[in-house]
Structures are given as C-alpha cells and as structure tokens.
Amino acid sequence: MGAAALVGVVSGQAHAAEPRFSGTTAIGTHNAYEKDKYTYFAQALDSGASLLELDVYVDSISHRWRVSHSNPFGDDNNCEAAKTPAELYSKARNQDLGSCLDNIAAWNRLHPDHPPIVFKVEMKVGFNDKGGLGPDEFDTLVSQKLGGSVFKPADLLGGTYPSLDAAAKADAWPSRDALRGKFLFELIPGTVEQSNPFDHYWTDEEYGDHLRDLYAAGRISEAEAFPAVLGAEGGDPRTSRYDASIQPWFVFFDGDAASYVNSGYDTSFYSRNHYISIMTGADGVSPAISSTDPTDAEVADRLALLAKDHASIITSDWSAKSASVLSSVTDRG
C-alpha cells in the first residue's frame, strides 16, 4: 500500500471506525478545469481526486460566471454543454460555471456513491455584488444546479452550533462514508483581486460577512460554500485579518505546503481544532518531486509526510496519475 495506508483497511475481523472528514488526508488536482489536464471535466471527476479547482471570473458585462485561467471575458476550460449523463464526454467545451455545475450534476447521477469531492473555487477578480454577481447569486446558482448534493455550512452546524468554528471544534464533521455522494465548495480570493489596489474587500471577507449575516437572519441554509483563509501563517491567521464578528465563520485554511512545513508553524493547530487544511504545491516540499508525474511511491510518501503535518488535502498538478493513486486517503496526523 506504499507509505500511506488507506483508511478503511481492516485487519482480520477487526473493523476500524470510519474516520470523520476532518480526520483524513487526501489528494487534489490543481486547475482541473484546464484542457491539458483533462479533455472533459467529467474525466477530472473520474480521476478519483478529492479536490478539483475551478478559476472563476465574474463577467459583469455579459452577467456570466466565466471559467478561465486568464480570460475574464471568455471561457477557456474543459466543461462541456452537457446536462445529462448520456451527453458527457461528447459536447462542446469552453462553457461557463453553470455548465461546469451541470456536468457535475450529470456525473453525480452516474456515480451517486462517490467519495466526497471539494471544489476549490478561486474567484479571480472577486465578486461583484452590486452588479448582481455576489455571494447570494453564487449560492443560488449552485443550489439550482446541484440541489441536495452539496454539504453546506448549515449541515456542519446541524442546528446545534452557533458558528462554524464551534461546530469544527466539536468535530461535528460527518464521516467520509456519510459524505458519499456529496460535494463541498471552498472559496478563495483570486490573484487578480489580490493585486487590485482599488479592491480591499476580497472574496474571503465578503463571503464571511455573508455567512454571518445569513445566520443572524435565520437563513444560513441558503449558503452553499465555505470561505477559506488563504496563505500559510503561524498561529491563528484569522485574528489579524478579519473582524471578530466573522472569524468564527472560517474553518477552511489554504496555503503553500512548503511554507507550512518549512516555516516551523504549529500545523497541529488545524487538526487539533478539526479545521480543514488545504496544502498546495505538495510537490515542492523537500525533497521536491515532479509537479506533473511523480512515481506512485513518491506520491504515497508525500501524502504520508503531509498527513503528519496535519494537511486535510494536498494538491499538485498530478492529473497524469491513475485513479488508484489520486483516490488515496490516509489518516491525518
């Protein structure tokens, strides 16, 4: 089984308890929407990866959610104009976010028992709430396309906890088995947004405000996503970035793996509080391995290493690896 033992493996007649979502480390694929990684986005879903990334631009001129790496006014991706299982792997690509979600919904009908998959959505230029492309419209689109197949903030709260932080610290996350057939959405601020000197209200803060306000209004069930604290830091990075009123609405953390590992940060903070920690660029941690096609043994070793450093999901550009590799899941340190 390599260096990372898969969860759920049993010895003799003894059956290990199914781990919670917060107690495992899995593998994700960077920019899985790009055509040089997968011909169709449905193939990215087939890959076995536990996280797939989508880059989204709000196109305020055409009032569309564009999916592209660098074109804010067009679509450049492997999502296709397919709404049914029979249409997958055959239709025109370069579609908008709504079509990507249609592909996910169609694929979900073919694979209703799939392990949980996180969609990391980088909002390249942020939201445009005044232009009708804000957090509430994002929620509406996801809800219309995917319905009850999304594990939402309200599901973690379970009608019991007053904030996501309180729920996470109580380890209210379901087991991985209970999350079969489910998707989770993680939102991060985009590279263009972060470099815009006129934009000081980024995706993470905006969606954090959105969650706080929905909860206060008794409408938290409308929220479809979890905002992430972006960038590796020591201590609790929420305290220096956000108003105290929204700090408890962040339980996803996303940063460079090498920065986490090499900077001496106490990464046990994340697993101790049952937060979800995404470690990107897993190939760059010393000793560096291929960012595109490492050996199976190298991937297993890297998964085991970063599990000990309390990662929930590690990511790289490993789309060339087989489903048996990308679906690997191990116990979190």
TrEMBL record:
<protein>
    <recommendedName>
        <fullName>Lipoprotein</fullName>
    </recommendedName>
</protein>
<dbReference type="GO" id="GO:0008081">
    <property type="term" value="F:phosphoric diester hydrolase activity"/>
</dbReference>
<dbReference type="GO" id="GO:0006629">
    <property type="term" value="P:lipid metabolic process"/>
</dbReference>
<dbReference type="Pfam" id="PF16670">
    <property type="entry name" value="PI-PLC-C1"/>
</dbReference>
<dbReference type="InterPro" id="IPR017946">
    <property type="entry name" value="PLC-like_Pdiesterase_TIM-brl"/>
</dbReference>
<dbReference type="InterPro" id="IPR032075">
    <property type="entry name" value="PI-PLC-C1"/>
</dbReference>
